[in-house]
Design goal:
single chain, eight-stranded parallel beta sheet
């Protein structure tokens, strides 16, 4: 059994194909999919999918690169109302992004401050409603983004847990936050030849410290790289990670599925 802990099922890339996508996922042994919200509209759509398909669960959040585009002024209140839905299992995708340039008309400092304010608001929302958080962290170079995120999550220690999705760093960088109860998650990038650091982390990471995800429709694993990613392709990532760890796909799937169960508290 495999759980795709992060998929953008509400994306227009899937349009009216969700049922077929989920059928292919089931055939590949992916029994659960977490549909991740990035703004009010996609959060609502993710919840609708979770209501319709029993193998789908949803998160609700405002992605850091969407913070200047969200048309709903009361976005936080709307996310708060959706977070109470029984099919909502986390707040996010939220976090910080220092990789993409500031939108036209925004100074970089103002853009970063807007991201920080939205991230802080969603951390507080998650803590208030008893949910964990799905965190985006991406930097062009250096560690400024990662250090800022650790500083913002730290005050919520004991009130929520975070999964740092699409992990791109070493196990040495992950270990301190894992020891605090947080998690990391590997995408298809772990299968790429130019991602030795990610592969090494997937090999070294302690059992129980990570989940697997597709981040579909993005980041298809080898040998599907270049195609539209989908939850069924999680098996390719699982097979590669299992191979570098020297375990069976079944053992890895059971472990990461249990981690997802504990983090998202499916019920």
């Amino acid at each position: 059994m495999l759980s795709d802990s992060h998929a953008h099922l509400a994306s227009s890339a899937f349009a009216d194909e969700v049922e077929e996508v989920l059928a292919r996922a089931a055939a590949a042994g992916v029994s659960r999919v977490v549909a991740v919200g990035c703004d009010v509209a996609s959060s609502r759509r993710s919840l609708e999918l979770a209501e319709r398909y029993p193998q789908v669960w949803a998160t609700v959040g405002l992605h850091p690169t969407y913070v200047t585009e969200e048309p709903q002024e009361d976005w936080l209140e709307q996310l708060g109302a959706m977070a109470g839905h029984p099919r909502c299992v986390a707040v996010g995708e939220t976090g910080l992004d220092f990789y993409h340039p500031a939108p036209e008309g925004w100074a970089w400092e103002d853009y970063v401050e807007r991201q920080r304010a939205c991230f802080a608001a969603q951390l507080a929302l998650a803590a208030a409603c008893g949910k964990n958080v799905v965190v985006h962290q991406r930097d062009r170079s250096g560690t400024a983004c990662w250090e800022a995120i650790k500083g913002m999550v730290g005050p919520f220690q004991g009130r929520l847990r975070a999964v740092f999705h699409c992990w791109l760093h070493s196990w040495e960088e992950a270990r301190p936050v894992v020891e605090q109860g947080h998690l990391i998650s590997f995408t298809g990038i772990a299968t790429y030849k130019n991602a030795a650091v990610v592969e090494a982390c997937a090999r070294q990471a302690a059992a129980g410290s990570f989940m697997l995800e597709t981040d579909s429709p993005y980041l298809a694993p080898v040998p599907q790289r270049g195609k539209r990613n989908e939850p069924a392709f999680l098996r390719e990532t699982a097979a590669h990670v299992a191979r570098v760890r020297g375990v069976s796909v079944e053992a890895l799937g059971a472990m990461t599925d249990a981690v997802a169960e504990g983090f998202f508290r499916f019920s």
